[in-house]
Amino acid sequence: MVSLRSSGPLAVGGPLTMHLAGAETNVAIGLARLGHRAAWVGRVSDDELGEFVLRQLRAEGVGTDGVRRDPDRPAGLMFLERRTADLTRVRYHRAGSAGSALHVDDVRAPLAAGARVLHLSGITPALSDSAREAAAFAARAAAAAGVTVSLDVNYRARLWPRAAARAALAPLAGYASIVIASEDELDLVADPGADEATAVAGLLRRGVRTVLVKLGSAGARAHTRDGVERLAAVPVTAVDPVGAGDAFTAGYLSGHLDGLDLVDRLRRAVALGAFAVTARGDWEGLPRRDELSLLTGNAAGTTL
Ligand code: ADP
Questions:
Q1: Which of 70, 189, 197, 220 has the fewest CB atoms lying closer than 10 Å?
Q2: In this predicted model, what pLDDT tens digit does every residue of 183-194 receive, in sequence order?
Q3: For the complex shown, is ipTM > 0.95?
């Protein structure tokens, strides 16, 4: 999706800057920056905006063979309105967009190509019936093929009510090995109103191996059958919170692909979340592998 950022109130106009945005693309870029092979599967418009999305992904080293150009539908747009210095408002123009027309047939070939991990966000199933079917099909097929399925709940209140999200996402979580959620999203993959302990117990019973709970500037918790690990956030100056969760996911999946143990996976996740909030943009500030220790190595300051 294309995001258009304002530097002030939208109603008075002024310049907008154009960026690639999207939960799954953010995760794919985070992984590619760290040197992993990552590909994004989806639909983009067959115009300059679709071309922009493809060029950004290619520039970041993300595979685009599984991207379909849709000649009949426009690009999905998101306005990020900097209404005040402290308040950014989001406005979607994505109903009927190319991305929302994702279909089961779009994901068959990329799935057949194989991968070690399939990452899904809870946003895609919110976009349309066909996108929801495609996400469910992908999760089912990947799990059956022994691929690790990762699901970030990523609830977006502007896209669907909680009950509808739960009806789609709770079954999806049954195919996942890794479930990622904020504290207030956990009951969307459990019974309504379930607390963290109950939701986590239910997920682990259904075969999920790791439940990651993102806590913003307080860090994160990771639940497994062996118990819970907690990690504080890396102290940084936060300038833009957007994209922190996706960066966290990319860091965790990178650690998973590298075969790190749970605490080190969590460390990398928390480090990437910190990188994301220290730079403007969803993914622009994410580190290359040789930069991983920039925030966590010696005390911050000038690196000579
Ligand atoms: P989301 O973007 O999905 O709401 P969070 O805000 O919980 O996710 O952020 C994800 C992770 O990013 C957190 O678990 C934390 O490790 C890191 N993070 C978020 N905010 C900050 C911050 N202000 N300072 C340092 N790290 C942060």
A1: 197
A2: 999 999 999 999
A3: yes
